[in-house]
Amino acid sequence: MTESALSSRERRRTEITRTLVSLARRATAAGGLSSFTVDQLCDEAGVSRRTFFNYFASKEDAVLGIPLHSDRDETDDFFVAMRPRTPEGQVSPTLLTDYAALSVARWAALEFDRSSVEELMAAAEREPRLVAHMLDRHRAEEARDVLLVARREGLSDDDPRAVAAVAIVGHLARLAVPASLDPVAPRPFADVLAEHLAAAHTLFASQTPPSPDAAAFAPPTDPTSESTP
After folding, report:
1. Model's pTM, two decimal places?
2. Which of 75, 102, 155, 175 has the greatest number of C-beta atoms within 10 Å?
């Protein structure tokens, strides 16, 4: 297949994906998930039922914009390959920075803009089940990324360092989303995430590692509260 033919097919796939996602969100916002069928959605989009299920596993996934197939394996493998040579048992010094770069690539692939987010929020407000579906997918994605980080770093699947890396960068990425979608002065998601990550690096570098035998924190006792014999 020629490069031009491949590009044409990819453009067509992108257009169909955007159309199905937008229609699914608007239909859900108007009457909930039960107010329309996949067949009705396909008729409006001008595609077949088979095409829909080549793109999405369910109506819920269409509303959330979660494709059935993606290039995630390729980007994940690149993330693993980015690991610099590091002594066995140690976490690479670029782990958080590289994982943040992976988050940026994933965000770009979602092609979120203010309009699409407003459609998604309207659908979620009308259909509370979507929130639970989003949370389930989020937990599954985080668990998958813990395994990915562990594979890259040569750690056990339950190593707390892999869990911490995913939790830290994931939270900072979520904090970067509102600024990137600001209606007045939106900022690049990558720039905002980089700033948050730099602040986290500075904060952690200033802290003293906890000692295993450190005493548990307890508020000071108020001497005036002691009873007089």
Report:
1. 0.80
2. 102
Angle, helix 160-180 to helix 129-153, in steps of 10 degrees: 130
* Helix intervals (H) in the chain: 3-31, 38-45, 49-55, 59-64, 72-81, 95-110, 114-126, 129-153, 160-180, 189-205
- Among residues 68, 94, 66, which one has the least CA distance to residue 80? 94
Length reported for the chain: 229
Average pLDDT over residues 62-90: 88
Quote the tokens at residue 170: 């994931």
Given a contact cutoff of 8 angstroms between Cβ atoms, the answer to whether 20 and 47 are in contact is yes
Contact 62, 41 (CB under 8 A): yes
Whether residue 100 contacts residue 173, with contact meaning beta carbons closer than 8 Å, is answered with yes
Please give the average per-residue pLDDT across 130-144, as a whole number: 90
For the purposes of burial, counting CB atoms within 10 Å of the CB of 126, is it exposed (0-12), middle (13-18) or buried (19 or more)?
middle
DSSP 8-state symbol, 35? G
* Token pair listed for 117: 């987010």
Rounded distance between C-alpha atoms, residue 43 and residue 35, angstroms: 15
